[in-house]
Amino acid sequence: MVVIDPAVDWGSPFNARYGPSSHLMSTLPGDEGAQELADFVRRAGIPGRPHHPGTWREHYDIVAPWHDIAVYAGAVAVDRAALVQVLKTRREAMGR
User: Fold this and answer.
1) Whole-angstrom distance, CA of residue 36 vs CA of residue 94
2) Does the predicted TM-score (pTM) go above 0.90?
3) Among residues of the chain, what percentage have pLDDT more than 90?
4) Which residues contact 9 (CB under 8 A, 6 or more apart)?
5) What pLDDT is recorded for position 11?
6) Which domain holds residue 14?
7) Total tally of structural domains belonging to the chain
8) Which of 49, 71, 84, 91 could cysteine-pair with 56, CB 3.0–4.6 Å?
């Protein structure tokens, strides 16, 4: 399953340029999750490349206008606590 958290302005240079951003990631660990995420962004037409590829933190930063597109394409909207749980589960599954 691909999940996305709410868009937030983290005060970063990225946010100063593009506005609030979300994290888009697969709940699956390892290569299976990386493939699910890559397939999802390709189907949805979401631009960019993953951050931290090949790690339990692999995700895409999604700017606010793309958030609704990702949800429409099938990403499950979750709150920050749920996203943190996904990260913990992925880290444990990947032996980190």
Assistant:
1) 16
2) yes
3) 92
4) 15, 19, 20, 21
5) 93
6) 2-93
7) 1
8) 91
Q: Which single residue is written with the structure tokens 């790690």?
A: 55
Q: Which residues contact residue 8 at a Cβ distance below 8 angstroms, ignoring those fewer than 6 apart?
A: 20, 21, 22
Give the C-alpha separation, 57 to 68, whole Å.
22
pLDDT, residue 14, reads: 87
For residues 59 and 24, is the Cβ–Cβ distance under 8 A?
Answer: yes
Name the residue among 57, 61, 78 with its Cα closest to residue 20: 61
Buried b (16+ CB within 10 A) or exposed e, 56-69: bbbbbbbbbebbee
64 pLDDT exceeds 90?
Answer: no
Contact present, 10 and 21 (Cβ < 8 Å): yes
Per-residue model confidence as pLDDT tens digits over 8-33: 998 999 899 999 999 999 999 999 99
